[in-house]
Each structure stands twice: as structure tokens, then as C-alpha cells.
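Appendix B. Chain record.
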Amino acid sequence: MRAEGTKMFAEAAEAPAVVTAQLRDNAGIVARAAAYLRAHPPTAALICGRGSSDNAGVFARYLIEAETGVLTSPTPLALSSVYGLTPRIPGGVCFAVSQSGKSPDLVAAAAAAKAGGAFVIALVNVEGSPLSDVADLTVPLRAGPELSVAATKSFIASLSAIAHLIAEWSGDADLSAGLKDLPRQLDAAWKQDWSAALPALTDATSLYVVGRGVGFGVAREAALKLKETCGLHAEAFSTAEVRHGPMALVKTGFPVLLLPQSDATRDDAEDLAADFARRGARVFFAGATTAPGVVALPTVHSHPWLEPILLIQSFYRLAATLSTARGFDPDRPPYLNKVTETV
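C-alpha cells predicted for this chain:
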């Protein structure tokens, strides 16, 4: 099997067209959502999601706090779905992110947040889903049908919808301008050649994926995809957290993938890459680097908040190729279904 023949590869390649249509067709509803948030400044924000949508929520948390200063927290879904508890968040907002909008624990968490006083905004790919029924307002992801079990274009659509909403809410003109060029940049990111990492990863059993700040969510997403589609034990860490213990596992030949964006966290990522290389690790760094012994992977420059979206698009091409090189079918990961209905 060749990666180019998989649904994962084909669907990830659709991301530029998906984002083009999404930004155009969501302009009105995003403007209304942002107007509501400006007129009713939230006391706090909750994020609900599972799997890739949870990783999108990590991106949202950093972006919301960086752009608006609103304290933002992930919602422990079991508190509502298992323990039957209702969070007290009067005057707050809850962002619920989902591809299907069907997972019972996610729907229960959104309903509980609403009962606790939050205004619920659903970012969901399947309109008319149970999550949309609970929400006060739905921002469609507009990714279209996604047949591969591995979410790609729907994850990128989640990130672009989040960035669109927060740019409007905060009035960040630079971020809004960057979004206009995002589809073209996604197309360029898809064409970046990360095959230099294939020899080290084809026979690997474990690796670290490292990011920080607004890019940490895509580091988590990359690690998840390596588990799902490549049978690799991949763990995501921040550049700070990996130094607190996990560094002890990094020895000669241990592969590390760093996914930094060009903001205040980048210098720390370069320092860490050099540290890993000195330990004998096989280090792959997204972007130009002067760290000795580190392999640079080509990237597309953009607004720092949007670069993680471009990095994960380049990564998806690598992941699909790596999956087939390791003898897997990325469209049908073992023991997984497209919609996981946890409670």
C-alpha cells in the first residue's frame, strides 16, 4: 500500500479547500459569536473535547488566554457524565469541539456547563448533531465527510475555526490578516518534504514529540496520530516539562520530533534540540536551526499563532507515509472506530 492511495492522505490534502470555504461561509456566524462575547465578557471559559478535538482544545486554551486574558480550563467530562455534577460557571462560556457531536460524555458536559450558567458554543463538523442541539450557538467546521478513522482535515478545520473566532473576538487585525492567507499556506505546508525523518522512525518503537505554548496542542495531536496510525509509542511533552524527568529516557538513537512556532518559545526549543543531540538522540526540528547534529525539516512561515496549523499539515503527510512504511493501514487503525461514544 502507498500512502497516496489512502483516505488519510487524500483527506489531509483537502484541508486548504476546506479552510477556504470555512472562512468564507462562517464569516457571519463567527461575527455574531464574537459580538456576543464582546458584549458579554465571559468570567471564565471551559473547553470540552475528546481525542483530536481535545488537542484542538489545548490550542484554543492558549489562544483564548493569550488573546483575551480570559481564564480557560479543560472540562473533566466524567464529572458530569459519570458523577452527575454541574459546574458553576455563571457568566462563563463553554467551547465544545467535536467532529461527530455524538459522544455522550461530551454532550453531557456541554449540557452541564449550560445548566451551570455558561453560554455554549459548539464547533462541530456534523450539523444537527446532539451537541448542536445542546449548544446556544454552533460554528460549523465544514470539513465535509471524513472517512478515514484518523482525523486530519477535521482537526485542521477545528483549529482554523478556533483561530477565526478568537481573532474576531479579540479584534486582532494581524491574526485576521494571517487567516486570509492560511489556505494558500496550508497548500504549501502539504508540499513540504519531511521524509528525512522516515529512516529513523520506520523501525522506532518510541519517540517524543515536543512543543510549547500555542503549539503544544499539535504536539499532542502528532503523538496521537503516531500511536493510532503507526503503532508507535509516542509521547507529547512541552519543552519545559520534558526536562523534569522524561529526559532520562533519551539515549543514543532515541528519536525526538520538535514542533516549534516562531514566537518567544522558539529559542528554548533550539536549546532543547541541542541538548537532545548531545545525548545522542536523533532529533528532527521543524524549521531552520543552527543546533549541531539536528535535522531541520522545511516549514512555512506565518503568524506565530497559525504556524502550528501549518506544522500539523506537513506532519500529516509524513504520518500517512510512515504508517504504510511500517505496514499499517492509516485508514483502519486496529481497535478504533471513527466515532467513539464514551460515557
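Further analysis of this model is presented in Appendix C.
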